Amino acid sequence: MIKNKARIYGVPDGCKSAFLYERIEGEAPRAWYGTLANYLLGNRFHKEKIDQTLFIKKQQRDILLVQVYVDDIIFGSTKKELCIEFEKLIKDKFQMSSMRELTFFLGLQVKQKEDGIFISRDKYVAEILRKFNLSDVKSANTPVD
């Protein structure tokens, strides 16, 4: 099951993120989400039942996933052309500050390579080590099964 999920995002260019030009505050996030949701639903996406911020579009054997988090969007597909179509669809309706390969999301670092997608918290760990003056401490390996 995990392999199949990873495969959806398996193309190195396949996962991207998009950011709106300005931060959304107050009641605006709900209104923006409603506008975005209606736009996606009107363009043959369907909303996931469990996660109402996940939108899915299926085209024959391919799938495009769009995850919305406040004013950030991440998306990926099994087919690069679906990502390109989605970029155009979004840019036609909304002004985006940037659309690029996903490298950081919700505090997680994301590295996309040919053999998979790797998620880490290296930046956070380094910050904690600095905070407690442990940056220069000698490290030790731990045994792995």
Automatic annotation (TrEMBL):
Cross-referenced SUPFAM superfamilies: DNA/RNA polymerases
InterPro entries, A to Z: DNA/RNA_pol_sf (IPR043502), RVT_2 (IPR013103)
UniProt protein name: Putative ribonuclease H-like domain-containing protein
Reverse transcriptase Ty1/copia-type domain residues: 27-144
Source species of the chain: Tanacetum cinerariifolium (Dalmatian daisy)
Short name of any one Pfam family annotated for the protein: RVT_2
Superkingdom of the organism of origin: Eukaryota
